[in-house]
Every structure is written in C-alpha cells, then in structure tokens.
C-alpha cells in the first residue's frame, strides 16, 4: 500500500503529467483490445439480420473503448503488484510516468463514453452487456477474484468472453444460444491459456502474492486442470458447425485445431514438474493464442464468403 500512496500524486509537485501518448495507449492494453475487438466483430458478423454500417462502426468503436477502459482501470488498481512483477514493472504507473488518479479518471471517462454512446446509437442491451463487462473485469476480477482465489482466471475469464455476445446483441438486440456458444469458446479457453502462462511465470506471481493455480495447488495439479479444460473447449469449439451457423470448412478446421490443442495440453501434462515443463508450457501458451484467433478468423471468413455469394445471387 505504501507504493500506492507514493505514486498516487506522482506529478503533484509539478502539476504536469509526464505521460506521453504512447503511455495512454499502453493503459488500454492494445494487444488484449485487438483480440476483444476482433471477437466482437465476428459476433456481429455472425448474427442474423442487418445493421447499418455506421452503427456497426460505432458499436466496434465502443467495444474497443470499453475494453481499453477495463485495461486502464485494471492498471489503476493493480499498480502495486505491477511494480513487483517483472513483466509489468514498466507500465506507466509503476514506471512513474503517470499518477493513479489520472488513470482512474481516464478509465472512468472511457467507460462512461463507451456505454452511453453504445446505448444511444445502437441499443440498450448491447450497452448493458458492455457496462457489465467493464464492471466484471474491473471490480469482480481485478478488485476481488485476482487477489483472493486461484479460480480468479476461471471466473474472471467471463469478462473477456462477452465481446462476441455484445457484437451479436448490437445487431439483433437479443441473446441467443449461438452467441452463448461464442462466449463459451473464449470462457473455457481462458484457463488453459493463462495457466500455461502461469507455469513459467509462477515466480512473478509469487512475488506479487497473486494466488495463481501453480502457486496454490502446485504445478502438477495445474497441468492436469489445463488438460481438463482443454478437453472441454475442444468440442465446444466445434459447436458453431454442429448448430449450423458455421460451415463444413469451419467444422473440419475446428476439429483439427481442437486435436492440436489437446496434444499441446497432453504434452504439458506429461512433462515432469520443473524446468522440463517450461518449454511445452510456453509452446502451449503461444499456440492457445493462435487457436482462438484462427477459429474466429475461419468463422469470419466463411461468413464473409457466404454473404458475398448471397449478394451475387449464387
């Protein structure tokens, strides 16, 4: 807490912030935001019906801004542990380039802008889902779950899974089983993705006193749970084809990617605890990103081709 107090008014002596434009961009967690925007866009394109292109652009902008707001609020609250962890120590607050108060104000303004704009121009359901997503990530996950339970990623993963549902609701003003499946793919993917990371970053989490699964239940239990969750996400990844809102190309591709994901999880599970598990864990972490992105990319590709053929009358 001393760190928070020390950095709460980092620029009070001059009255000027040392933050650059790149610092404000960093607060938005652009890499995370890009995946959020992409999955939200796929949800929008997969939804039945039409949406005005201008409204679609507004919806995507609001999803992006809302995701950025969540990232900023996360960095505001977690600035103390960010300073301890090697991979986050150069973020704007712990690096001393911006105050916590500025980041809190920035995050709240972005949150209000994204939710109000989406509600006014698109529909209230999508705005509610966006508001709930920001609240869930900033309050439920960041302020509560992250520091109290090794299930933080399991429950908190819901925040990153809502964007395709928001995109779907922006078009249809409803929630359907199809949008729930798109949600479930990301929700079930999150634990093996982050637990693979935590296997080779456990020292960082230990220093920050974050109860990640390897630090609480041990690496052996974590590896087993990674495999169990991969067993769940692999068949769920095929459901868009089973339910008929994805085509055979997606069906074959998702099945093959599910097998590859399971293979990576099996390799991690079978690796001895210690240095021997680090390399397969890193490989699985990298592959998990490709897995999720490629599933949504192939689904989007099929949807765009289908729409193009429909327009062409073929």
Automatic annotation (TrEMBL):
InterPro entries: Protohaem_IX_farnesylTrfase, UbiA_prenyltransferase, UbiA_prenylTrfase_CS, UbiA_sf. GO terms for cellular component: plasma membrane. This is Protoheme IX farnesyltransferase. It is found in: Cell membrane. It is a multi-pass membrane protein. PANTHER family: 4-HYDROXYBENZOATE SOLANESYLTRANSFERASE, PROTOHEME IX FARNESYLTRANSFERASE, MITOCHONDRIAL. Its EC number is 2.5.1.141. Carbon 2 of the heme B porphyrin ring is defined according to the Fischer nomenclature. Keywords: Cell membrane, Heme biosynthesis, Membrane, Transferase, Transmembrane, Transmembrane helix. HAMAP family: CyoE_CtaB (MF_00154). Its main location: membrane. Converts heme B (protoheme IX) to heme O by substitution of the vinyl group on carbon 2 of heme B porphyrin ring with a hydroxyethyl farnesyl side group. The chain crosses the membrane at residues 32-49, 55-77, 103-121, 127-145, 152-175, 181-201, 222-243, 249-269, 289-312. Pathway: Porphyrin-containing compound metabolism; heme O biosynthesis; heme O from protoheme: step 1/1. GO terms for molecular function: protoheme IX farnesyltransferase activity. Belongs to the UbiA prenyltransferase family. Protoheme IX farnesyltransferase subfamily. GO terms for biological process: heme O biosynthetic process. It is an enzyme of class 2 (transferase). It catalyses: heme b + (2E,6E)-farnesyl diphosphate + H2O = Fe(II)-heme o + diphosphate. NCBIfam families: cyoE_ctaB, PRK04375.1-2. The gene is ctaB. It comes from Phyllobacterium endophyticum.
């Amino acid at each position: 807490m001393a760190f928070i107090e020390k950095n709460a008014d980092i620029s009070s002596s001059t009255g000027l912030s040392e933050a650059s434009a790149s610092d404000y961009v960093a607060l938005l967690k652009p890499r995370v935001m890009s995946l959020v925007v992409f999955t939200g866009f796929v949800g929008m394109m997969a939804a039945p019906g039409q949406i005005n292109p201008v409204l679609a652009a507004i919806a995507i902008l609001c999803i992006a801004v809302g995701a950025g707001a969540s990232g900023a609020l996360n960095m505001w609250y977690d600035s103390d542990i960010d300073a301890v962890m090697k991979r986050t120590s150069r973020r704007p607050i712990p690096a001393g380039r911006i105050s916590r108060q500025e980041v809190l104000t920035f995050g709240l303004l972005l949150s209000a802008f994204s939710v109000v704009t989406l509600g006014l121009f698109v529909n209230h359901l999508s705005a509610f889902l966006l508001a709930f997503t920001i609240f869930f990530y900033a309050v439920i996950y960041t302020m509560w779950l992250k520091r109290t339970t090794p299930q933080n990623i399991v429950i908190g993963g819901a925040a990153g899974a809502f964007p395709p549902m928001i995109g779907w609701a922006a078009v249809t003003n409803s929630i359907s089983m199809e949008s729930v499946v798109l949600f479930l793919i990301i929700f079930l993917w999150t634990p093996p993705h982050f637990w693979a990371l935590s296997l080779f970053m456990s020292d960082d989490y230990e220093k920050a006193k974050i109860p990640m699964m390897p630090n609480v239940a041990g690496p052996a239990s974590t590896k087993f749970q990674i495999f169990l969750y991969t067993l769940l996400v692999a068949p769920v990844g095929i459901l868009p084809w089973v339910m008929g809102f994805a085509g055979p190309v997606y069906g074959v591709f998702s099945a093959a990617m599910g097998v590859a994901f399971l293979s990576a999880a099996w390799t991690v599970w079978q690796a001895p605890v210690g240095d021997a598990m680090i390399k397969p864990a890193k490989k699985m972490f990298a592959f998990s990103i490709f897995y999720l992105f490629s599933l949504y990319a192939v689904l989007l590709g099929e949807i765009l081709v289908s729409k193009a053929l429909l327009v062409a009358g073929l």
